[in-house]
Write a structure and sequence with these properties.
Two copies of one chain form a homodimer.
Chain A (H helix, E strand, L loop, with lengths): L12 E4 L8 E4 L5 E2 L4 E10 L2 E7 L8 E2 L2 E3 L6 H13 L2 E13 L4 E12 L7 E7 L12 H16 L5 E4 L1
Chain lengths: 175, 175
Amino acid sequence: MEIKYCNQCGGSVSLATPIGDSHPRHICVQCGYVHYQNPKVVTGCLVYQGDKVLLCKRAIEPRLGMWTVPAGFMENGESTRDAAKRETMEESGAIVAMQDLFLVANLPHANQVYMLYLAELKDTGPHGPETSEVTLFGKDDLPWEEVGFYTVKYGLMRFFEDLDKGKFSLHEIDF
Amino acid sequence: MEIKYCNQCGGSVSLATPIGDSHPRHICVQCGYVHYQNPKVVTGCLVYQGDKVLLCKRAIEPRLGMWTVPAGFMENGESTRDAAKRETMEESGAIVAMQDLFLVANLPHANQVYMLYLAELKDTGPHGPETSEVTLFGKDDLPWEEVGFYTVKYGLMRFFEDLDKGKFSLHEIDF
């Protein structure tokens, strides 16, 4: 969203590059406050049990009815790992043992950085309202055409490849 | 900074948890716009040549006069890797060959995620005004007590340890 008013004094803003800065910012014409806008981190888990991964069917937009891994925007005061675990609990109800960072996917056009952790499924519980269904899928019964986000599809493909190799490693991609 | 006014209509905001949300947000009392605040990504490079690392002496606050690696806030429209390379060029003038992600350090109290990449020094050039001096240091002549940020000190310690082992790997820490 474009910034139209100063969040400190309510004055109007204009777009200009501050002295010593390399990017234009929304600067308040009244109090001079500079409004920075930066990418957001989306963090979540690739939860697995044996050779199956946990997917959530989305009960909300965007991509209502499509499948995805539990993930969402990291909040202030959290670490990436804590945020991934919280999102997993909220969206899938899964209790997991957190493992290594598995995917860093940049979406510069959307100003987002996806960070997905591997996590082993330990227990299940009730999921939140963002999800209508939680299921474990193997490579062959996974509804690939109904995966809601290409970052997630990319992560799932790398997961099953690494599973075949017997070794998980960190994957990085810029979309 | 606390949000006091709506950036969409200039109205007042109040702190409340939207329906279906788990965190309180600054919501405009006039137009209902919800202002989300999320952690920022700081990205940069651990630039090395042989057994030496490149450090910049800071010409600006915070930590004026202290040493650090080239790093700064990721901008909208960038990938983490591109941002790391840009910050490295701006702050140190170094032309580098980007390598693997080396450190993910979370600072939940500061709402920041540090992501440092390994990068091999290929050439040098003029540095920007944030820096007063750029120097290559080995483990034994590095001014450890004058390193300005503990995330950076942690990364440098892991770098020299991995260098001794002959193998670099990804390090993660929450401060």
